[in-house]
Amino acid sequence: MNRRKTAVSIAATTALGVSACGGGPTALGDDQAISNGKLTLAVVTDMSGTYSALTGKGSLEAVKMAVDDYQEKYGSDAVAQEIEVLSADHQNEPDIANTKARELFDRQGADAIFDVPSSAAALAVADLAEEFQRIYINVAAGSTDLTGSACNEYTYHWAYDTEMLARGSAATLTQRGEKNWYIVYPDYQFGQDMTAAFTTHIEANGGKVLGTDATPFPNDNFAASMTKALEIKPDVIATMAAGSDLTNFVKQYNEFGLAEAGIELAVGAMFDTDVESIGATQMSGTLYTTDWFWNQDDEAREWADDFKARLDVRPTAVHAGDYSAATQYLEAVQRAGTDDADAVAEELDGHEFEDMFARNARVRSEDHRMIHDSYLTVVKEAKDVQEAFDYTELVETIPADEAFGPPSSSCDLG
Amino acid sequence: MTTFLQASLNGLVSGGFYALLAIGLAVIYGMLRVANFAHGAVYMLGAFGAVILYDMFGTPFWAALVVVPVVIAAGGVVVERTLIRRLVPLDPVYNFLLTFGLALIIQDLVRLNYGVVGQPYAKPAALEGRINFGPLEYPTYQFVVLIASIALTCGVWLALNKTKVGMVVRAATERPSLTEAFGVNVNVWMIPVFAFGVALAALAGVMAAPMRSVNSAMGADIVIILFAVIIIGGMGSVLGAVLAAYLVGFLQELAQMYVPAAAGATTFILMAVVLAVRPSGLLGRQEAAR
Predict the structure, then answer these.
(1) Lowest mean pLDDT among A4-8, A30-34, A376-380
(2) Are B118 and A221 within 8 A, CB to CB?
(3) Domains and their CATH numbers in chain A
(4) pLDDT tens column, B276-290
(5) Which residues contact A40 (CB under 8 A, 6 or more apart)?
């Protein structure tokens, strides 16, 4: 960390030296367009905890890939000639996220922050984006508050949210006749939000929530939930657990024979990394909603191959979302001709685009949610799996306009 | 009623795991007066041992049950001889620093190699499916784990109370200096006792692999519960630790069943109550509380 800081300050000194010596009109021109002479993108993420496989260094790499592609595309025409990518580990703690993001904005001159898993941390960074008037594009957190009561002019929400997941899984399954639900959720913000969103869509489609069960987080023992479900006998048991908790849940769902008892499993939020750790055999047939999977088409596969060449794993939807967010941010800087946050935000607002991650995409100017197609998917049968991480099969595409909720009335961007 | 019975079984299964782990902690504490905060990491290593053996050599679960605890216990002996034994005469703060530091190192080494994503591990085909007890149906594997942990705890209790070796260990646990005076080399006895405690934790890890998520953090959470268990049972008392382990597992499950909001707190409420009524724990002696 110290070494990086030194490198940064040397770079800054050199830039100063060049302009002080009258380094030519180009350098001066760049200085005006880009504050400090360089564009700084920062990835605030979980480098070692529960969400680090889903986000972590993959998110950092995805942003670096976006920078490389931008530089290759525009070469000497790029508005931002010098681009630096920083990262900070927030350990899923809102207060650490707050301190790190403040330092990035305040001391290290970050122009934009990306990723930020875990809702509480994500919301803490949104406040700072408003305070420092810099761009913040959240990719990894699910809270709809980012584009609701906590929305602001500089905060964007790029990938999935709890509403998108509920619309995909809860609404679709209930319409298919799975009317009676039992929901098990970890007792913190994300779990509570997901349960509320699922309940709304289950009931709106004529279904019923027979019971809910709050569990501690983290939790390695779901025996009580399984016992209760066997007693209530719902059509579907839905879990809002993530990461290793989800692994535990699915292992125990299989052990206690809920599938044989005719109780289907629906997972609130799931990523390829989860299937990898549980094993496709135990997961096959499980329905879930996602907004990207690496094997969805040629464009996604091509990017996933590049990603694999760099990190030796397949990217998650969050990694792809980070790539898209950074790419569209850089494109907005290019169109605006400056890194000034207000000018960039103006370019982003209402922008319609297609990229490797987002299809039929539009950045809503009302609340800064980026809407795009989402997909109801199912985990493949073990015999159909061709290689590691090849687990997802498309069931149904949910068009961008229906995939996300309407702009919230509690968000007013003036 | 069926539901209550099922919940009780769930509780006993949890309790069985806690008991296997707590026995190890209790005997190590009793003999060395070292609170081994790396015990959870050993449990995690046990689970990873099973996964690694299977991935590299295709070693079946049954063989892993024997091989993993033996290998890990051997490693434990090295650590005991080189590091842990130096703690015996030192201030307890060093004990905490060393064992907690060891736990972090082990955990991070595993994380470096395997990441934080859980590793898949299938249970043996013979233990797939469920057993019927009249109206009650229970996962075979979990039931076998329960029986195995009860058998092991009984075995340990018998060994400690009915054999000559057990007598020496108990004596050395309760009055180390007096035992020395009778010509028993307590220092030498620390090796098998430490190895035994570590092997039990590794065994619990192997048994957990098919039913829990195998990841680098799996030992970090359980170690907190374990310390509550041995405090409730009475520091150093093996029987106390076993009783407390089943009690804690049982209460946790019933709470999760009927008052989910309180499930996480039950263990600590129990600990607070026990400490208020019996400061040295359920079966602890006054001396142990020093």
Answers:
(1) A4-8
(2) no
(3) 2-161+296-371 (3.40.50.2300), 163-291+374-403 (3.40.50.2300)
(4) 999 989 987 755 444
(5) A83, A84, A85, A86, A108, A109, A110, A111, A112
d(CA B40, CA B216): 10
Proportion of chain A above pLDDT 90, given as a percent: 73
Cis peptide before B120 (omega within 30 of 0): no
Query: Could you give the C-alpha distances from A338 to A66, A81, A157, A321, A343, in angstroms and in order?
Result: 18, 12, 22, 23, 7
User: Residue A389 and residue A316: Cα distance in Å, rounded?
Assistant: 9
When the pLDDT of each residue in chain B is averaged and rounded to a whole number, the result is: 89
Q: How far apart are alpha carbons A374 and A197 in whole angstroms? A: 16
Closest CA–CA distance from residue B286 to any residue of chain A (Å): 35
Q: Which domains does chain B have, with CATH numbers?
A: 2-289 (1.10.3470)
Choose among B116, B142, B213: nearest Cβ to A53.
B116
ipTM tops 0.85: no
Q: How confident is the model at residue B264 (pLDDT cuts 50, 70, 90)?
A: confident
Answer whether B128 touches A (CB < 8 Å): no
Query: CA B107, CA A240: separation in Å to the nearest integer?
Result: 27
| Burial classification of residue A93, based on how many CB atoms lie within 10 Å of its CB (0-12 exposed, 13-18 middle, 19 or more buried) | middle
